[in-house]
Structures are given as C-alpha cells and as structure tokens.
Amino acid sequence: ALKAPDATTGVVCGYCSTGCGLTVHLREGEAVNLSPSADYPVNLGMACPKGWEALTVLEADDRATTPLLRGDDGIRRPVDWHTAMETFAARFKSIQAEHGNESVAYLSTGQIATEEMALLGAVAKFGMGIKHGDGNTRQCMATAVVAYKQAFGFDAPPYTYQDFEESDCIVLVGSNLCIAHPIMWERVMKNRNAPEIVVVDPRRTETAVSATLHLQARPKTDLVLFYGLANLMIERGWVDRSFVEAHTSGFDDYARFVRRFGLLSVAYETGLEAQQIEHLAELIHRKKRVSFWWTMGVNQSHEGVRTAQAIINLALLTGNIGRPGTGANSITGQCNAMGSRLFSNTTNLLGGHDFADPLHRSKVAGVLEIPEDRIPTQAGWTYDRIVDGIREGKIRGLWVIATNPAHSWIHQQDFRQLLGTLDFLVVQDMYSSTETALAADLLLPAAGWGEKEGTFINSERRVGLIKKVRRAPGQALSDFHIFKLAAHYYGCGEMFKRWESPESIFQILKALSANQPCDFTGIRDYRSLDEARGIQWPYPEGAADLSSQRRLFADGRFYHADGRARFVFENPRPMGESPDDEYPFLLLTGRGSASQWHTQTRTAKSGVLRKLYPAELHAEIHPADARWLGIGPGQAMIVESRRGRVHAKAFVTPTVGQGQVFLPMHDPVTNTLTYPDFDPNSRQPAYKGCAVRIRSE
Ligand code: SF4
C-alpha cells in the first residue's frame, strides 16, 4: 500500500545533464515517492518520464546485492567484502608486479558523484599507481572539451538555461532536444520572443519537425556547411568587427581559409539548396540574440572537434557570446559529465589542472598533502587506446565502474572478445545483469542514485546535491565506500584519511578549484548548496554576482593568457568508412525515446518506461529505399555491416534521407554494426557513420 509521506527533501536527478530538481517524499526517512521541484531554477516544476520513474528502477530484481567472485571452475559465487577486496588488491598487485603499473587500467563514468570520481581518480593514480584510466564521457563529451579548451583556453560551456528563453534565434546542430533533453526543450517553448528555431540534422527528428527551419544536410557535411556559412557572412560583411578585434585572434587566417568554401560547392556537398544556406546566414546576421547549441550529432563524429569549433567560430565572428540569449553551447549528456570533465583525474589533473604543468602538480600535491612524485606528469591513455592496450596484451587487469561498455563501446563484438582475454576483470555496478557485469571475474555491488550523497554538475555548470533517501539493497555499498576499501586493501588508505566523507571531499575539491575558471570556493557546504537550489561555477569566495542564472564571458575575456578566444580550423577529412557498392547505406545511431537512457541498464527496469518504448528493434528506412528493396512497413529486415548483422522491424518513414538507416543506441545489438573510427583530436568514437546493407528477411 502507498505510504503517506511525512517529510520531503530536494535532490537533483541522476540521469541526464539537464540536472532537474526532484522533491523526494519521505516516510520515516525513506523515499516513498517523488515529484519535480517547482522552485528549482533548472526545471521549474517539470520532469521527463525518466525522472518521474527514478525510484522505481532502484527496486529491480537484478540489483547487485553481494560481491561475486569467479572460482577456478568458472562459476561466480557470493563472497564477503573482505574476501572481495583482498582478492581485488592481490590480483591487481600481482598483475602490476609481473607486467608493470601500466598493465592495470580503469574505465569509469559520468554517472557517479563528483566526490566519488575524484576519489577514484586519486586512489587509482596516486595510490595504486595506475597510469591509464578514462571515462565513458569519452563517448559523449570529449569533443566539446577539446573544442572549448583550444578555442576558449578552458573547458567552459558559457551558457545558462535561461538563454533558451532569451534567444531570438536558436540554432540546434545534431541535437534532438525534444527527446534527448526534453526539459531544455520545454525551456525553448517558454521563449516569448517568437524565436527562429533552426535545426541542422540529417534526420527529420522530433525537434526538426518542430523547428521553423530544418536544414537536412547530408550526414557528416556539417563542417563544410559551417565553413561555407562563415565564408558567406564574411563576404557580405556580416561580421561583428569590433568584437572580433577586441576579443579574438586568428580571424584573418580564418577568413582566408574559408574562401575555398563557396556557396555553390557547399550546396552541392551538403545536398542543401543555396537559398537555404543564404537564408540561415541572413537569419544569423539579422537576429540580435543568436544561440548555437550542439550535442552528439557533432560530438560523435570523425571530425567532431573541428565541427564544434566551426560553430564556435560562427558565434565569435558574429559577437554572439557573453550576452543573454547567445553562446556557442555544448549540451552535455550524462548527469555528471561536467563533474567528470573537471574532477575525474583522467584527461585533466583534478580541478581542470594540467598533468604536464609542474606548477599545477605542485598545487594539487600541496592541497592533497601527498608527495608530488605520486602525480603522473602526463594524462593516461584515452579509452580507445586502453582498448588497444588490451588487444596488445599491455593491459591485463581492468576495473570498470558504473558503465556498460560491452553494450555501448563502438564495434561491440571486438570489445567483448577483448574482455575475455583479460587476466582479471572487476566490474562495480548497481546491477548484476549488464552485459559487462556478466563478464566480470569480480562483481562489486554498488549503491545507486538515491542511496548515497554527493554532488553532480549539470550542463550549465550548476553544482547540485544528491542525497541518501533509501537504503541500498543487501550488501551494496556507495562507490565512495568501495573506493575507500580499495585504498585500504591496496595499502594506501593513509594517503586518503582526510577524504573521510563525500562532504569532506567536497571541501578538498573546493580548495583544488581555487583560482581556476571553475572556482567554487564560495560554496560553503552541502547545506548552503541545498538552500541555494544549486549554484553555477564560477562561484569564488566573496563572489559579487549571486544570481541564480549566470553565463560566462560577459566581459569579453576568455581563458587564454592573452584573454582572447581563438579561431581554430582545419580541412575536412573523409569518414573512416563510407557507403560503397557492397554496403550502400549509411547507418545513423542515436537516442530513440525520451523514456530510455543509454544501455537501458536502469530504464528497462520500469514497466512505465518500457511501455513508452517498443521492445522490438525498429530501423528507420526511407520509403523510396524500402520500395526498391521490396520491404513493407513492419516487415522483418536484416541490417548488416562488415562487423555483424542485426534483425529489425522496418519503420518506413521519411525521417531519414535516402541511402540512410537509423537505429536507436539503446538496443543491445546496435553496436555490433558500428565502425571504430575516432575524432583524431578528442579520440571520441564516431558512432554516427558506418556502411551497411539491408535486405528483407
Ligand atoms: Fe532527469 Fe534529465 Fe529527465 Fe530532467 S530531463 S528529469 S534531469 S532525465
């Protein structure tokens, strides 16, 4: 029976980067229900189906409740935490003793609290001597990180969500905001300026259908399109000269570079009408507050960094940055991708510092009170390089935390085979049934969102609080506790004795953030964060601006030493695998529904969410292609690449262009098809382009 609540408390949602506030209804301190928080400045009383169902999925039958250890007979049996962690330390230490510190690596996540990922990064790199660790944020945000660092001097998305409401022209690139970030889309719907909504996307997505202008460019021609737009605007004198001269460098070189992207050749390459491109250029010129937004359609590309920078360049050359309703704005994916970007100790040294900078190493060593020589002098391998390291036999032990790469990594079969070659695989997860958890030699049961405390940082840089509102099942422990045990059993627990609770780690992270662009030394503690309903960085001690919506670069100063933003550009490059006579279709992958999340580890556990999304795999195919192949609506078909084949029902629809097929990323088999191509600058996988062929079954 439903229990009547006797109290409520506010937390932020644990799925996507929107970071909605949720009010949890408590009975004797335990969560019995939840509703969206009306007073939270992010979601203003709204939530998507995933948020509404956040408590349900914690009750699933396949929650990991006890450590499981594989015996010599190949069977996994329950063990106590002491045995589990003794084995963890003994096996990884023996691999390191035999093959070097480099031979053990970890893969983590943007789904755990900032304090937890900082503890993991510190224990692994400074305590256990692990050199290589990366996160699943490599699969979603690495491109934006590199693009911002090179253009602005720091990984700093400049916007606040209010910009959705204040723009008079919103340009969405490779973003299906309606279903991927439904609450952000609701913020667009609250815009009272009758904005132009422009969508650049090869698919006629839910968002494209709702736009005032949809540019259905050929897949992976967006970089050419943005160079062409820049050239057109420069030719016509539609440049904010005073902004460019005062706040940027490299414009003249950029103007020379884009001359080769003439209107007619860009129209030919993108498949767009020249008038459509001219119309968009004119809109950007004419409108006063233009905001540019991008997400996975750009990030998960073979040239994502340069595409993101071509978008940034458009904002710079038109002076659309630092003012309300403007910006070159990357929308993050996971609830704590921003926390991971700054505090996971993988690409950056804790706090957005640089491993290679001796001053940064010295500052971090001082704050943490650890010997400076424990800090590596360079970042470890990226995710794809770790995967190659397994292939080469250099990585022999792997620790996977709160991510499911056996489903989500590009060219999945290859990754699964490689998992089988490891000497020891440890998986730490809430659920025992993920594809990766099933492969583990040692499974460590973890508490989930709602069962522990900490902070997340959302897309608009807002630090928000999560709280323990129910007990984790069985023997499951918070990731914080598991990392503390790892340090203890590895013999380096002393180094982390000050890291005694998530909130004490928060105080350490504050000190690490001091004088960085992400400085949040002005946030006193968890209580003040709770009272403020989340706080955006930067928020230094004594911050003058305490408003609830704050954007960056209002003063025109960027984070490079000279204070100027950079125009960064490069010639377009070909995709790793393009359609040919044998495999004539291009496969696009992406989010299939607002009700589902990534590999469905959590969302498939809710009956309500399952009903909102078809259980059978559907492939979108254009009517003309379906006719040519003799495939009718709902008919069984096979989609096949050089790496594998999948069975799907035909969804005959003009949402995709001719020669394209779309599969949702949530299905376990989609990544059996994808081709392992990577952006050379960010090493982010290019999930949205590989060659396939199709036939009826
Ligand atoms: Fe949670 Fe994102 Fe849905 Fe908001 S939009 S309720 S943060 S999943």
Automatic annotation (TrEMBL):
User: Which Pfam families does the annotation name?
Assistant: Molybdop_Fe4S4, Molybdopterin, Molydop_binding
- According to the record, the segments passing through the membrane are none
Q: Name one GO biological process term.
A: cellular respiration
What name goes with this protein?
Putative anaerobic dehydrogenase
Annotated keywords: 4Fe-4S, Iron, Iron-sulfur, Metal-binding
Membrane keyword on record: no
Instruction: Tell me where on the tree of life, at the top rank, the source sits.
Output: Bacteria
Query: Which GO MF terms are attached to this record?
Result: 4 iron, 4 sulfur cluster binding; metal ion binding; molybdopterin cofactor binding; oxidoreductase activity
Spell out the InterPro entries in the cross-references.
Answer: Asp_de-COase-like_dom_sf, MoPterin_dinucl-bd_dom, Mopterin_OxRdtase, Mopterin_OxRdtase_4Fe-4S_dom, Prok_molybdopt-oxidoreductase
All residue ranges annotated as the 4Fe-4S Mo/W bis-MGD-type domain in the record: 6-62
The family database entries (PROSITE patterns) matched by this protein are listed as: 4FE4S_MOW_BIS_MGD
Where is it found, in Gene Ontology cellular component terms? membrane
